[in-house]
Amino acid sequence: MIVIEKAQKEDLKEILELQYLAYQSEAKLFGNMDIPPLKQTLGEVYDDFNKGVILKAIDENGVIIGSVRAYQDAGTVYIGKLMVHPDMQNKGIGTRLLLEIENVYQNQRFELFTSTRSIRNIKLYEKLGYETFKEERVSKELHFVYMQKG
User: Fold this and answer.
1) Contacts of residue 20, Cβ cutoff 8 Å, sequence gap at least 6
2) Does 25 fall in a domain?
3) Going by C-beta distance under 8 Å and a sequence separation of 6 or more, which residues neighbour residue 125?
4) What is the pLDDT of residue 99?
5) Is 121 within the bounds of a domain?
6) Does some domain include residue 66?
């Protein structure tokens, strides 16, 4: 049984290790392992923790297999770093994490972004009611799609 709860400071190293693993597939979409989620430091994860909420999904053995982060600013909740262990994907864990972070910040406008190449992510977000409101070209290869809900 998968349980979703707020992460604690002692979880952050394990969450960062999961992030390094989970974002490998995203990096491979671009043939570039030099993407921000693979370069984030533990100190930066602590900053995220202190700024907002980090949730974790844990399996029956207490292993963190998923996570998501969010913070609120000026009436918008910014959601990021939604990740699920590669071996546990397509089991509804990402959906549960996203719905739970929305539950933490009820009755708000939510915003997130992903690469235009991340078709599976975009389909998940659309299924949960997110709509594209902006696209941004970061480089020749990298374009972000910004999505909102609420």
Assistant:
1) 37, 38
2) yes
3) 98, 112, 114, 147
4) 97
5) no
6) yes
The domain tally of the chain equals 1
Output the six-digit token pair for 79. 């959601």
Contact 64, 58 (CB under 8 A): yes
Closest CA to 80 of 146, 142, 150, 8: 146
CATH of the domain at 46: 3.40.630.30
pLDDT category at 141 given cuts 50, 70, 90 is confident
Residue 19 has which token pair?
């992030």
User: Quick one: tokens of 13?
Assistant: 């190293």
| DSSP tag of 60 | T
- The predicted model scores a pTM of 0.94
User: Tokens for 116?
Assistant: 């235009």
Task: Compute the distance between CA of residue 50 and CA of residue 131 in angstroms, rounded to an integer.
Answer: 29
Beta strand 109-115 with 64-73: parallel, antiparallel or unpaired?
unpaired
Nearest-angstrom CA–CA distance, 120 and 71: 24
Residue range of the domain that includes 51:
3-110
The answer to whether the Cα torsion of 25, 49, 109, 68 is positive or negative is positive
Give whole-number Cα distances, 48 to 27, 42, 129, 132, in Å: 22, 10, 25, 25
Report yes or no on 119 lying in a domain.
no
